[in-house]
Amino acid sequence: MKRLVGAALCAAIIGAPALAQDVYRWVDENGVVHYSDSPREGAEKVEVREPETYSAQSALPATPTARDSSVKVPPDAVDAYQSVRIATPAHDSVAWNTAGEIAVSVAVSPPLNASAGHKVLVYLDGAPVAGTPVASTSIGLTGIHRGTYQLSAAIVDGGGRQILRSETITFHVRQTSIQNPQRRP
To answer: Considering the entire predicted model, what is its pTM?
Structure first.
């Protein structure tokens, strides 16, 4: 019963900043702690901090055609590609026990024109991946252990100028715990 009352009081205190009201605390003769929005003799004013908030990024799956308008590329190259996206891993997917390796597949439409010097540059957590750009749409990443990662890809021309960049996807890597062997992927 005390836990239920305590939980209700905590909820009232957490909601108090949203209502912009003062909160007061006092202890009665039985040692029970009380909270109220009305002052009374012997009560002390409680300073309630603003709650921490978080705004998540859009959880939409990766879609093509994120062109960077600040990048100057030849007009024929701009029209050459309709889309680029991360095909695998899938957005918000979970990979189990990867031994630090993740296979990345990039879907390009129309297909990558390697003969024109076009390559795929992969970004992991916003930074270019070592060993890219490559003239392939299949890339193996290493050193990817437990955690959450963001991944995107771009098509670049022979001079390294970006032609088209995919939307960023998020994927997660998990490890089976020896402390909880029943939990399996």
So the answer is: 0.56
